[in-house]
Amino acid sequence: MSGILSNAISGLQASQNALRTAGHNISNANNAGYTRQEVNYATRPEQNIGSAGFIGSGVTTVSIERIVNEFVTAQLRQDTSTFNQLDKYNSNIGKLDKLFADVSTGLTGALQTFFASMQNGANDPSSTPGRQLIVTEVESLSIRFNNLYQRMDDVEKSVNREINTVTSQMSSLAQSIASLNQAIADKRASGDGNQPNDLMDKRDEALRKLSELVSLQVIKQDDGDVNIFIGNGQPLVVGTQVSSFGVSNDGKIQLKSNASVADVTAQISGGQIGGLLSFREQVLYPSMNELGRIALAIADQFNTQQQQGIDLDGDYGQKLFGDINDPVSAANRVVHGQNAQPYDRNISVTIDDISQLTTSDYRFEIVPNTSNYVITRLSDKNVVEQGTLTGAYPATISFDGVTVNLTSGSFQGGDTFTLQPTKQGSRDIHAEIKRPEDLAFAAPIRTAGNTSNSGSGLINAGEVLSLVDIDGNRLPAFSTPGTLSPPIIIRFTSETTYDVLDNSDPANPKDLVPAMRDQTFIPGASNNIFTTDVGETRVTGNGDRLGLPSGRVAQTATEPPDLPGPMTAASLPQSNGYLAEQLRFTIRDPQTGAITNKTITTSPGASAAQTAARISALSGVSANAFTTATITDINFDTTTYAPPLQLSVNGENLLEYNFANNAFASDVPNPNVSEAEFNDYIAERINSNENLKALGIRAQSTNHPITGMPELRLVASSGVNLDIRLSASNAGINSIDVNDGTGNPNVRLTGQDDPLTVGTVEQSTVTVGGRVDITMANGISLQTSPTNSPLFGDSSLPDFASSSFLGYQVAINGQPKAGDTFTVGFNSNGKNDNRNALAMTALDSIKTLQDGTLSFADGYSKMVEEVGTKSSLSKINTEASKSLLEQTQTMREGISGVNLDEEAADLIKFQQLYQANAQVISVARELFDTLLNSL
């Protein structure tokens, strides 16, 4: 009897548990995260009833379990994280895409309107309405930049607020999961190790919600706890221990655990936080930096060009836009980290070279417990500069077109700074110009050719390159308002050579400082006259042994009478007297800063041409050699004015004899009658001599500028020595004076030939040495040994190597003739001059950005294209991710979700089971009653 009742009761209990479970499933069918549960049964142990064997004892409920597939659950978390990242990224990038692409809010239309107004002004530079339109457009363009920055700044603030909210939610969910770990452990301890299903559902749902916010790695422990890791394995929840999130002042996400704080911004991904960070770091910040770079470039280039012109008042132009290196703007480019007190670091970032600017931010860090610093470009994590701070301030560090200025303060190990050279450029740009008259449309220089020039040479209008030198100081040429200091005259000394002179006194032009003497001209080509290298310097050959110095005397040489016959030891040219010396060039690589040294040792007695050739073989160094001499005070005795009287230069006889060699040719003038005509003859003989032409030797018959006496000037543009000889009878007074044309004393050549000596002719000879001017590119310097160089002067003097950069350029082409001149002066009446306006208009197409590969419009178009492409791709990826998430959710619901039809069927089944077990109990009761009634 008891067995029947016991079996029935166990069945009743089992069916009751099943009914309760089915009802529980139905009740939670719409509860997010609920997992369907089912009851597991087991047969009770059978009982031995003797010889008949064993008989069943009913059923027992083994467990009530969740129907869950851990793989599907993990996949759901992963797909949830991916979709939420892409969705958040997509919703934000769409805002920027629309902002940039819209003509009414983007930059493209504003740039087009601005340059159109500039072109209109250049077409009529004297038009006040045209100028006023430009002033208005300068203001409009600045406002458009400002508005774009403000919109992006609003987006940045919104994103940062979202990041703060999401990190708070992440911390809250992490704490909730840790609490659920504890609650589940408590329930298991009190429930014989069985899992509390509903708490497990709550924890899984909390994990799913956390996966909406960030990507997770979930590790289940044997004791039922789950550990959560993020990023590259940073622990968020370990059992009941939980870390929390925070956001620093500079927007970095920090993971705080006990006393430690770690920056995990670069490590975490996925979920809404991943989408926000990806958008901020990969789209928003680069876009702000790119827009800022364009604004800085426009302001810098237009300010520079504007300042290189002159306005309607004849003054040099002032800035169109605000100074890009304004002290406030420079200081705002630095975000200070959480540095130790005192808070007295005075640090700023100034822009040096727009073309070298990147769109990256930088991290400037002083290594803890040291004075070593490291500057890292954040876009590619490359170290761009490192070194040691000496503690002496101010100090500067330069890289990527910018300079970090450490002005003062307690810089110390552990300090960190974020450098943002371009981010705020579009915020800071503003118009400075107010009056249309202040637009500097005219160029400050004006060129002209002399109307009496005999050649076909033409000089162009010229252009201004810069108003300042390599150190940012005003160049002397533009230091005095209303004048070019000094005015320039370019004087051709031959068809292939010219001098550039200071024309402050037109009646007496003088050498520039540094001098530009005997420069080479290529006929038929466009020849730039000046350098474009702002750091170029020139050393002018000015030693005390050059040319024909004091103390040098004539020597006697012997030649066969049929000059210029074979050279004998007695007839070799006199040495120029130059000594050997060392020239040590220090070369600094402009890209790497690496220093190299090159040393040249000159040869004793080497000509200027030979020394110049060796110097010019060095990269970045060129040497110009030339030799000058003057023949004057010619005195020939009339009684001996006949052969073998002869004057020769570098072995070439200049006086022509008759057929019998006993008298001069009929066209040889007598200097005793007209020294000027004699000089004209000698000059023509030299200039028509092919051998002398090959040596670059030319002559000019002229007069001394002070005494007015006739003289013959010789120039060897190649820098060869000038070997000048006089052959004349010693029976009369025959002499000429020779000097080097630089103020050194004359050397007199006298008649040396003894008429009684047969077979030889004695000559009085002197050799004039040349000069070498050395031009060195930016970063190259020269030291000589001995310091006071006989060839170049004292190399220890500060002006030994002077800047040769004048700040402007002119070009001459065609075929000038000797004596032709061209001038460069100040443009005193530039009302209708539009050269500088055209230069400003040309900035539209000039490749200014990114190492000279992008124009302003190119840079903006590239940014818009990149944002648009990313936005389009984001939409596609978001839709695909949404589809995958929906598939995974469907899969999960198919496994773990509540199917009401199935549950309704189970209710009927379990109800019938319950009723059947109740019927068994009823039968047992009737049997029991029958038994009792039989007693």
In total, how many beta strands?
Answer: 47
Strand content: 25-35%
How far do the termini sit from each other? 16 Å
Number of helices: 14
- The value of Rg in angstroms is 48 Å
What about the largest sheet?
8 strands, antiparallel
Mean pLDDT: 90
Q: List unreliable stretches of 5+ residues.
A: 562-567
Helix content bin: 25-40%
**Shape designation:** elongated
Structural class given helices, strands, pairing? alpha+beta
Protein described:
The protein has 935 residues and is of the alpha+beta class. It is built from 14 helices and 47 strands. Helix 2 (70-101) runs antiparallel to helix 13 and helix 6 packs antiparallel against helix 12.
Which features does this protein show?
single chain; 935 residues; alpha+beta; eight-stranded antiparallel sheet; five-stranded antiparallel sheet; 33% helix; 25% strand; elongated
Characterize this entry briefly.
This protein has 935 residues and is an alpha+beta fold. It contains 14 helices and 47 strands.
